[in-house]
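Structure in, sequence out. Go:
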């Protein structure tokens, strides 16, 4: 049985890029029988008029309009919720993705029956040095906290099993960190997640809104998702640090005839409390998974 695909594009103030990129996307969807969902995330330029103009003449296009800007993740979530096909793929509105990669990922997910395929930009040059450093820090923290078999967890091109994506949307943030968190959520729930190399182009027009704040928010969301799915990964190392530091401090004081150290006792007690909190969080996590 033939599988169906929807392309979801989150859009915010991309009037210049859209006039170059969107006709190509529409033509590609029409040729391949894909559905197209365009999410106008509260744009303040002429994006709304451009989208309505194209949707008027193409029945396979659905335009969703947010009255206010909800964020990159919020826009993608609106698109996925309105998807009615077997699979859904997200691409960016800045024209950086090649449409042939959409076909490659779709063919791969039909061949492998994967639950998610990430378009990997490994080896491609980052838009800026700071963004490249930020992405590497995010990858390092994610891989340190959990087993992540995917290199490019924050890629904007991802192809999902649509029903699974809808199931996990409530766990994901509305911010730019959505890309990382949805990937980690699929991995944590033991779904088959693979990656396929893609190429990227320079942004056609406009300016990226990703900055240092985005990287910080992403790191915090990664920590939150780890606490949700595997809290002992966070609590256990902290508890062990307090216990070992407190014990070493206490032994040093005792050997030198200084009696029992209040500081060492406080550290040991803190370590025990943190460990017990970790056990409680682990139980709550298990209950949530079962539900």
């Amino acid at each position: 049985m033939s599988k169906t695909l929807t392309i979801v594009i989150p859009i915010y103030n991309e009037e210049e890029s859209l006039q170059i990129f969107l006709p190509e996307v529409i033509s590609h969807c029409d040729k391949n029988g894909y559905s197209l969902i365009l999410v106008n995330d509260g744009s303040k330029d002429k994006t709304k008029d451009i989208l309505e103009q194209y949707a008027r003449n193409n029945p396979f296009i659905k335009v969703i309009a947010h009255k206010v800007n909800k964020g990159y993740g919020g826009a993608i979530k609106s698109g996925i919720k309105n998807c009615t096909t077997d699979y859904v793929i997200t691409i960016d509105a800045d024209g950086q993705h090649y449409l042939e990669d959409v076909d490659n990922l779709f063919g791969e997910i039909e061949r492998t029956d994967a639950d998610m395929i990430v378009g990997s930009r490994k080896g491609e040059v980052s838009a800026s040095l700071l963004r490249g450093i930020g992405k590497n820090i995010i990858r390092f923290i994610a891989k340190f906290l959990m087993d992540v078999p995917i290199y490019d967890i924050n890629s904007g091109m991802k192809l999902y099993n649509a029903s699974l994506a809808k199931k996990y949307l409530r766990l994901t943030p509305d911010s730019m960190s959505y890309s990382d968190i949805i990937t980690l959520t699929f991995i944590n729930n033991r779904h088959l997640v693979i990656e396929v190399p893609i190429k990227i182009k320079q942004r056609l027009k406009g300016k990226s809104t990703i900055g240092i704040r985005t990287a910080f928010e992403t790191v915090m969301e990664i920590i939150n998702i780890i606490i949700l799915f595997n809290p002992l990964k966070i609590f256990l190392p902290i508890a062990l640090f307090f216990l070992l530091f407190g014990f070493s401090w206490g032994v040093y004081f005792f050997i030198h005839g200084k009696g029992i150290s209040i500081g060492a006792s406080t550290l040991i007690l803190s370590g025990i409390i943190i460990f017990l909190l970790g056990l409680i969080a682990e139980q709550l996590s298990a209950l949530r998974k079962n539900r």
